[in-house]
Design a protein that fits this description.
With about 650 residues, this protein is of the alpha/beta class. It contains 22 helices and twelve strands.
Length: about 650
């Protein structure tokens, strides 16, 4: 019997919510992907089917035993206890074994369901870690979270109901028909003749519900993204008095979700009463034909008629259950499609198979006619060329949106140039594994990121094997040790997501401590050859900061993107002094808005509209009296 009506492969009109260009939107394709994941647990599925078969067979045996017992008490004073008592014992055993098999089947079904959903979530999270930043930047964070959490939960609910009721329902109908044909062929044919009507009703309604559940799932994802964004930036919302406006926007999304949910639930709920009507017709026909057969003396006893009526209920009951499963399955497949869209999003291009890790990095960086844009129709970096010598401090300044941070994204291969090439020590970075390239840089950004965990775990994120002495040395070098020791548990103080109650400046100091500690073995491999080549002169580079522990393992190149923007002036002076020692002998890229922080740079790149418009040291650029001098005067002469 074909139950593909539950997941119909229907087509959609132009403009429909489901009119996408990915295979995940095809319901049959989505179902096949889910079944492939379930196939990993085929032995548990087979065990579930076996237990279901035992439960169904014994459930169908009971009406036969009950019918025989009824035949044993027909007639006044004709109760045959010698027949009834053994039958009652058999019925009791059948019921007990059925209950045990059903319990075991539910345990197995739960195991398979949650293992499949666990695998999908792990697959999704692993894929997210390998997605290009361009994909994640184009999608709200809350919407991605909704796919991994809410949609996976909905899929679990649908799978669990499908395992629990669909398998048993199909087996019940098939075996009930077999039992009925062994008892009375004409009545069984009456039941079979009415069955297509119930299937037609269920299919007719199911074909129209999938798109509605898809729209519901998308609206729920939009709502999750909106809530995540507004709660994460509640201070901004309140500071600008946007509470009423944001609430109104949320009400609009919520209303749209309500409409989608009502339509999906309404149409899917039509299946149950419609199939119940058909099932009632089946029951009435069985009762009528069975009663006529019994009255005509055509070999139909009262007990047999009772068994047939019980079978009629057993046969039609799965249709009622499956009609309820339709709602969950439609919702589950719609959510699975969204989850697979995330899993199947194109991953970042793999590293070149011939790529060799960096070793002995000296820090020469060359840009050759680099072009880049986030959106093809809006060029940002155009024909950018630059040659940075090992150990140079390169400051990048310019107005907001000119491409300063974009240069950093290209250096780290978070984004790839659309044309041109970037080389480190003469090697095209596309020919270098991303992990090896990024291990060559220590990076501190203006936007801090801390995970939920201890202070020590956050500092040692890139070097989890670091000792307590190394962690403390890095914190002292970043001038974070004093405030850490004032925390309730010191380095073992647990902070919440994004730093919890720490100030922005304290969070930035922890991020600076993280780069002071370095990236452990991988970073040491990147520079160990260079250490041997450069001899004792590299000892200062290996230790990082004079007076601190020799255990610090700073990378050979540094990126400081407004690294002290949230730190008070006194601490900033200390940090700048530490940075100066740290940058000695290392190629460093400093992105800054405050021009006072770049006066000591060897080369200052002045950017405007994605191009370098001026280049030189601080004194030469002031003497030139160009765009840099204009920026400098706007900050200092205006302030005076």
């Amino acid at each position: 019997m074909n139950f593909s009506f539950l997941i119909p492969n229907s087509s959609f009109k132009k403009g429909d919510t489901m009119n996408k260009n990915t295979s995940s939107n095809n319901q049959s394709a989505t179902l096949k992907k889910v079944l492939r994941r379930i196939g990993r647990y085929r032995w548990l599925v087979l065990l579930s089917l076996g237990l279901s078969a035992v439960s169904v067979v014994l459930t169908l045996v009971v009406p036969i035993l009950v019918g025989r017992a009824i035949d044993g008490i027909v007639g006044a004073g004709a109760v045959r206890f010698d027949v009834i008592w053994p039958l009652l014992w058999r019925i009791g055993v059948c019921v007990a074994v059925t209950a045990l098999a059903t319990w075991a089947m539910n345990v197995v079904n739960n195991r398979v369901t949650f293992d499949v959903v666990r695998d999908l979530r792990e697959e999704a999270l692993d894929h997210i870690n390998h997605l290009p930043l361009a994909t994640l930047d184009a999608r709200p964070i809350g919407e991605t979270v909704s796919r991994v959490i809410a949609d996976a939960d909905q899929l679990a609910d649908g799978l669990l109901m499908g395992f629990t009721q669909l398998f048993s329902g199909v087996l019940t109908m098939l075996m009930t028909l077999a039992f009925m044909f062994t008892q009375n062929v004409p009545i069984a044919l009456v039941v079979v003749g009415v069955t297509p009507l119930s299937l037609f009703v269920a299919r007719f309604i199911a074909r129209r519900t999938y798109a509605m559940f898809r729209a519901q799932s998308e609206a729920r994802g939009e709502q999750t993204a909106f809530i995540d964004e507004r709660i994460g930036n509640l201070k901004v919302v309140q500071a600008y008095g946007r509470e009423t406006a944001e609430t109104a926007t949320f009400d609009g999304i919520n209303e749209r979700l309500r409409d989608c949910s009502l339509k999906a639930t309404f149409y899917s709920s039509l299946t149950n009463p419609c199939t119940r009507f058909v099932n009632s017709v089946v029951y009435a026909l069985v009762a009528l034909t069975g009663a006529l057969a019994a009255l005509s003396g055509a070999g139909m006893t009262v007990g047999t008629l009772t068994a047939f009526l019980s079978y009629a209920n057993q046969y039609t009951k799965p249709f009622n259950e499956i009609s309820g499963v339709v709602t969950e399955l439609q919702n589950a497949v719609a959510c699975a499609a969204r989850l697979f869209e995330l899993i199947e999003s194109p991953a970042q291009a793999p590293d070149d198979p011939n790529a060799a890790p960096l070793a002995g990095v000296k820090g020469a960086v060359d840009w050759q006619d680099v072009n880049f844009s986030y959106v093809p129709e809006r060029p940002l970096i155009r024909d950018f060329s630059l040659s940075v010598k090992p150990g140079q401090r390169v400051a990048i300044v310019g107005p907001t949106g000119c491409g300063k941070t974009t240069l950093i994204n290209l250096l780290m291969r978070f984004y790839e140039p659309r044309a041109g090439a970037i080389a480190v020590d003469g090697r095209d970075i596309k020919k270098v594994p991303r992990g090896s390239l990024r291990a060559a840089y220590g990076m501190v950004l203006q936007e801090t990121w801390l995970k939920a965990g201890t202070i020590r775990e956050n500092i040692a994120m890139g070097n989890p094997g670091a000792s307590m002495a190394q962690v403390e040395a890095a914190a002292r070098a970043a001038h974070a040790h004093s405030f850490i020791t004032r925390l309730p548990e010191g380095y073992d103080t647990v902070i919440g997501e994004d730093g919890g109650l720490l100030s922005q400046g304290q969070k930035q100091l922890l991020c600076i401590s993280r780069v002071m500690l370095g990236r452990g073995e991988e970073a040491r491999r990147v520079k160990e050859t260079g250490n041997r080549e450069q001899g004792t002169g590299n000892r200062e580079q290996g230790t990082g900061i004079a007076g601190e522990s020799d255990s610090l393992s700073l990378p050979p190149m540094l990126i400081l993107d407004e690294a002290t923007s949230s730190i008070d002036t006194r601490t900033e002076l200390k940090i700048q002094s530490a940075f100066a020692r740290m940058m000695k002998g290392r190629t460093s890229f400093i992105v800054a808005h405050r021009l006072s922080t770049v006066r000591e740079a060897d080369v200052i790149l002045v950017m405007r509209d994605g191009r370098i418009v001026e280049q030189g040291d601080h004194a030469a650029l002031l003497e030139k009296n160009g765009f840099y001098a204009e920026l400098y005067r706007s900050q200092f002469e205006g302030a005076g």
